[in-house]
Design a protein that fits this description.
The complex is a heterodimer of chains A (about 350) and B (about 625).
Chain A lengths: L2 H16 L3 H12 L4 H7 L6 H28 L5 E3 L5 E3 L3 E2 L4 H15 L3 E2 L5 E3 H4 L19 E3 L3 E3 L4 H11 L5 E10 L11 E11 L4 H16 L5 E5 L5 E10 L16 E3 L2 E5 L1 H6 L8 E8 L1 H7 L13 E3 L2 E2 L1
Parallel strand pairs in A: 4-8
Antiparallel strand pairs in A: 1-2, 3-16, 5-7, 6-7, 8-9, 9-14, 10-11, 11-12, 11-13, 13-14
Helix pairs in contact in A: 1-4, 2-4
Chain B lengths: L1 E3 H4 L10 H10 L3 E8 L3 E7 L10 H12 L23 E2 L4 E10 L8 H9 L7 H13 L3 E5 H4 L4 E4 L6 E3 L5 E3 L5 E4 L4 E4 L15 E9 L1 H10 L5 H6 L8 H16 L2 E2 L4 E3 L9 E4 L2 H6 L5 H11 L2 E4 L4 E5 L10 H12 L21 H15 L3 E2 L5 E2 L16 E2 L10 E2 L3 H14 L6 E12 L2 E12 L2 H15 L6 E5 L4 E6 H4 L5 H5 L13 E3 L5 E9 L5 H12 L3 E12 L4 E10 L4 H11 L4
Parallel strand pairs in B: 4-7, 18-22
Antiparallel strand pairs in B: 1-3, 2-3, 5-12, 5-13, 5-14, 6-12, 7-10, 8-9, 10-11, 15-17, 16-17, 19-21, 20-21, 22-23, 23-25, 24-25, 27-29, 28-29
Classes of the chains: A alpha+beta (about 350), B alpha+beta (about 625).
């Protein structure tokens, strides 16, 4: 085969071997074998070849065409999910086939959802725009209760409508909807909103995760054991968590889980504010008033609820130092291969 | 709340414990201790977070009561047992007109000598972040910390004895506090005044009537107010003090006589003088105490561990509950008035369990799996299904602020006959409105990616969008997708529809100079999908795509390089090889061209490498080294 035809064969056999999609293969086929393609053009130019060379050249050209057809045909059968992307000059470029990514918070939520599904929990959801009744009153936080100071609310129609300040608000809706369908086991991730300035370490949107169980004869032992399983799922089997008395108006008794500081191992350091422990969230046995507010008889049913924030954990897992990164901003994903 | 060991021991003289143990024990019984600090003479101080429902915990006395139960050691009074307030013919001409006063006691002491506080008192004030003023003022603060009941000393030579507790009637609007801060009073603020002027608010004393070196007669007052009034006044006057922090909790009016006794005895002991009035006591409605029928088995039933009924009964008694037996295992318990947080059997359960020890409840026995009806809303299954499908198609998930800038609203994407929803009190006032379309958020994200020069982005978000109409607020889940390549986006939407087994749907579209956006109302879509099929899909998490999120701190830098090879090589293997060489700052490596030179029979591979979170110079250095271009 003459040099020119050889060059075409080499160049295109290379390109064809690197193609990653059927669409791109089709483009190459048209470019080579289409009506206005290179091979047809070469056949049309055969009249410019010296007469004594035409026969041989024609034969080689047919050979080239056949080889290219074979290459395209073979490639057509093997093109899989490898990916081709285009650049502005329409040249083909090769990258490792890409998959997208779930957001780090979604990954953490799903990790927990999977755990709780395995224990027979449903995943639940609730509105973001809520009433004062469901966000506070039903959770044993009446107007002017000091606990309201723990949460600076973001109102859309004060005092009645606000953005939920906690995932416990979803619990209010859940308990009401489930009062005739007990027992229940539920877990729910959710965004919550506080009226706080946004900066590197504070945000007005928080990601929380909560679990709520109502059944007969539920105990603090069930609560602590289940919560501990959650922490071990997230932080690994060696995590040290202690459970202590803590106050939340919607539970009684209240339970506060603290994780031993992973940096100083309980000795005290700036990370744990020298306490040796890091507060992990809140929990407890559902307050009898909260059950009663939902129409559930607290003499017949007991329950537990626990919740924790996901932001700090997810940031640590993903080496994120600025909380603003979690929601838009400068969070991006390194392209990764399938 | 700060707690100095040596002063705690005034209530618990037999207490003998290392600082770390006291810190941990206080934490375990519900008073989270942040840290402790050693002080001279084997003393130490602990910093505590006190629970919002434990007003008594904002005092040495309240904490000592808990520790007395926990360590089973006696609680004693630090007040001189020989001290008594003597009888007097003189009645203070005090009047109380405000309904917000639950109880007030007042007493006049004459011939006092104001002087610098003794060093122990100066140290105490300093350690509690209070500026030492003089012996009388410092002792009022000392008693507030010791018993948790705020109190005040007036210079009776300035104020006269005719004190009035009233809600400001508007006769005074200006007030200057002890530290010189000017407050603007409103009509309902609770104040202490005399017939001519306001002397003090319920939160902080006034400059004019404060104790100074010339003071030789004082009126002491110890009071508890309606905590709702205190909260309102504190917010309205933007004033938070040690007194207001305590008064806005449910304090024990019955503790006022004790606090007054202690205060009077300390002041007379420190400044001399003598009591020159009857003890004034305004207590219009004696507060009732809860009576709780309590099954002593409840702590065991609630905790799930064996807690003997004898232990439960012992704790109730040590807490100071009055007990009447109903039967062998049931009692009627009346908690001490200082424990305003105890009103239900469950409150007593917590008391018993926390003194028994939360750490005795095993943490190894999670709920066993149980099959219950699945009440997961279908929309959650759909959301997860779509997220995973789009990730498989190469799209990255983003999450963004539902609150957006006014100018980010896209008028064409506000649903017909509806309006956006605005926040009323956001301190992030640049973002006042809830998004009506998720495309607003995607556009902001794309702006960010452009600023950071992120190459070839494809991303999506599933989140709530909001609007209001006819007096109702509405919210629904919405899917938004961005792609710079329209045909690719269309093709992927078809693939998604195929996977969802639906024929298209109601899709909103939008485009700008960078690319193409689509939005789908998922609450509508969920009505047309086969949920049984969606639910049946695997729910395990795809952890193979975790660990790739990056917090960008600077623009991505993209550089090209050619390498010449003797033989043709699998470009994917080359990408892997050079990716490893570049290391952690590589964002993406692609091969943009491959050329075979027939003359030399060599192959030229053109790489395009993108670097992140490093500066230009460092990126170039790495690039030149890795591709051997130096």
């Amino acid at each position: 085969m003459n040099d020119n035809l050889n060059k075409i064969l080499n160049q295109y056999s290379n390109q064809i071997s690197l193609l990653t999609s059927k669409a791109e293969l089709e483009n190459i086929r048209v470019e080579l074998l289409g009506r206005k393609g290179i091979i047809n053009e070469l056949f049309q130019n055969i009249k410019n070849i010296a007469p004594e060379e035409r026969k041989n050249y024609g034969s080689e050209l047919n050979q080239l065409k056949t080889e290219l057809e074979n290459l395209i045909s073979q490639k057509s059968a093997t093109v899989t999910s490898t990916q081709q992307i285009s650049v502005s000059d329409q040249k083909s470029i090769i990258s490792l086939p890409k998959i997208g990514h779930l957001h780090p918070i979604t990954q953490t939520e799903e990790q927990l959802n999977n755990l709780f599904r395995s224990l027979g929990f449903s995943i639940y959801d609730g509105p973001v725009i809520v009433t004062d009744e469901y966000n506070f009153e039903r959770l044993n936080v009446p107007a002017n209760h000091p606990a309201r100071d723990m949460q600076d609310s973001l109102y859309i129609d004060e005092p009645q409508y606000l953005l939920r300040t906690q995932t416990s608000t979803i619990e209010s809706y859940l308990l009401e909807a489930s009062k005739d369908k007990l027992p229940i086991r539920t877990a729910f991730p959710g965004t919550t909103y506080r009226n706080e300035k946004v900066n590197r370490s504070n945000h007005f949107i928080f990601h929380q995760y909560q679990a709520v169980v109502v059944d007969k004869n539920i105990t603090m032992k069930d609560l602590i054991g289940t919560m501990d399983l959650m922490f071990k799922t997230l932080y690994g089997p060696d995590v040290v968590v202690r459970y202590r008395a803590k106050y939340y108006p919607e539970v009684e008794p209240g339970v506060g889980p603290d994780m031993q500081c992973f940096k100083c191992h309980g000795q005290g350091c700036p990370l744990c504010k020298h306490a040796g422990w890091i507060e992990m969230g809140g929990s407890g046995m559902i307050h009898p008033k909260v059950l009663a507010n939902a129409g559930i008889d607290p003499k017949e049913w007991r329950g537990f609820a626990f919740g924790m924030g996901l932001d700090r954990w997810t940031m640590a897992q993903n080496n994120i130092h600025d909380i603003r990164t979690l929601l838009g901003g400068n969070l991006a994903y390194k392209p990764s291969a399938k | 709340m700060k707690l100095i060991y040596s002063h705690l021991k005034k209530f618990l003289p037999s207490l003998d414990i290392a600082p770390q143990n006291l810190r941990d024990d206080l934490t375990m019984i519900g008073h989270f201790a942040n840290y402790y600090e050693k002080l001279p003479d084997n003393d130490f101080i602990i910093d505590l977070d006190i629970k919002a429902n434990r007003g008594d915990g904002l005092s040495y006395y309240g904490l000592a009561r808990d520790l007395s139960v926990y360590y089973n050691i006696p609680l004693v009074s630090p007040i001189d047992p020989d001290f008594n307030i003597p009888a007097s013919d003189y009645q203070l001409p005090i009047s109380v007109t405000s309904p917000d006063v639950r109880r007030v006691m007042a007493l006049k002491i004459s011939d006092t000598q104001v002087q610098t506080s003794p060093q122990w008192l100066v140290d105490f004030c300093n350690l509690h972040n209070i500026h030492s003023v003089n012996n009388i003022v410092d002792l009022t603060n000392y008693v507030m910390f010791m018993y948790g009941i705020p109190n005040h000393a007036f210079d009776a030579g300035i104020t006269s004895d005719s004190l009035i507790w009233e809600n400001n009637q508007g006769k005074n609007s200006e007030f200057t506090t002890l530290d010189g801060t000017a407050l603007k009073l409103s009509s309902q603020n609770l104040v202490i005044s005399n017939p001519t002027e306001v002397l003090s608010t319920d939160l902080v004393g006034g400059k004019k009537s404060g104790i100074n070196n010339n003071t030789n007669q004082i009126i002491l007052e110890v009071a508890v107010y309606n905590r709702v009034r205190i909260r309102k006044d504190s917010k309205e006057l933007k004033t938070v003090t040690e007194a207001s922090t305590r008064l806005e909790k449910d304090l024990d009016s019955n503790l006022i006589p004790t606090a007054m006794n202690y205060l009077a005895s300390l002041i007379i002991s420190s400044s001399g003088g003598h009591i020159s009035s009857q003890l004034y006591d305004y207590y219009p409605q004696v507060e009732s105490e809860s009576e709780i029928e309590f099954d002593l088995n409840m702590p065991a039933l609630y905790s799930g561990i064996d807690i003997p009924t004898d232990f439960s009964l012992q704790v109730l008694k040590q807490l100071g509950c009055s007990i009447e037996n109903i039967n062998n295992t049931t009692v009627q318990a009346t908690p001490p008035s200082i424990r305003k947080d105890i009103s239900l059997p469950e409150d007593l359960v917590e008391e018993v369990v926390r003194f028994f020890g939360y750490n005795k409840i095993p943490s190894t026995q999670a709920l066993s799996p149980k099959t219950l009806p699945d009440i997961t809303p279908g929309i959650l299954y759909l959301n997860l299904f779509i997220k995973k499908e789009l990730a498989q198609l190469g799209y990255d998930e983003i999450r963004s602020w539902p609150l957006i800038k006014q100018e980010s609203l896209i008028p064409n994407l506000i649903p017909q006959d509806s309006e956006p929803v605005y926040t009323q009190n956001s301190i992030n006032s640049d973002y006042p409105v809830l998004r009506t379309s998720i495309i607003s958020s995607l556009k902001s994200q794309q702006d960010q990616y452009q600023r950071f020069k992120v190459p070839q982005v494809q991303f999506f978000e599933i989140g709530k969008v909001f609007n209001q109409s006819q007096g109702q607020y509405h919210e629904n889940y919405s899917l938004g997708i961005y792609d710079s390549n329209q045909s690719q986006l269309s093709s992927n939407l078809e693939k998604l529809s195929d996977r969802l087994k639906i024929n298209g749907g109601n899709i909103q579209s939008y485009n700008d100079q960078t690319g193409f956006y689509v939005e789908i109302n998922l609450d509508e879509l969920v009505k047309s999908v086969d949920l049984a099929y969606i639910k049946d899909q695997p729910k395990s998490n795809d952890h193979e795509n975790s660990g790739h999120s990056v917090e960008l701190t600077s623009q991505i830098i993209t550089l090209d390089a050619n390498i010449i090879l003797d033989q043709q090589q699998d470009p994917r293997e080359l990408i892997k090889e050079y990716s490893q060489k570049i290391g952690e700052n590589l964002w993406q490596l692609i091969i943009s061209d491959i050329y075979h030179d027939p003359k030399s029979d060599k192959y030229r591979y053109t790489f395009r490498a993108s670097y992140y979170n490093i500066d230009d110079k460092t990126a170039k250095d790495i690039h030149l080294t890795v591709f051997n271009l130096k």
